[in-house]
Amino acid sequence: MRAILITTLLLITAVLLYTAIAEGDGGMNSQVNGVGEAISDHIRRMSP
């Protein structure tokens, strides 16, 4: 479980860095919103 969480956080960090460098502010804002939605959906599914 801990390994999955660490891997997910590293993947999110890599995506955010890529969007910050390659797409600028507009792309980064949309990516942050998408990642936030994905994380919240995942947490809701994990909660009993």
From TrEMBL:
Domain of life assignment: Bacteria
Name of this chain's protein: Uncharacterized protein
Organism classification: Bacteria, Bacillati, Bacillota, Bacilli, Bacillales
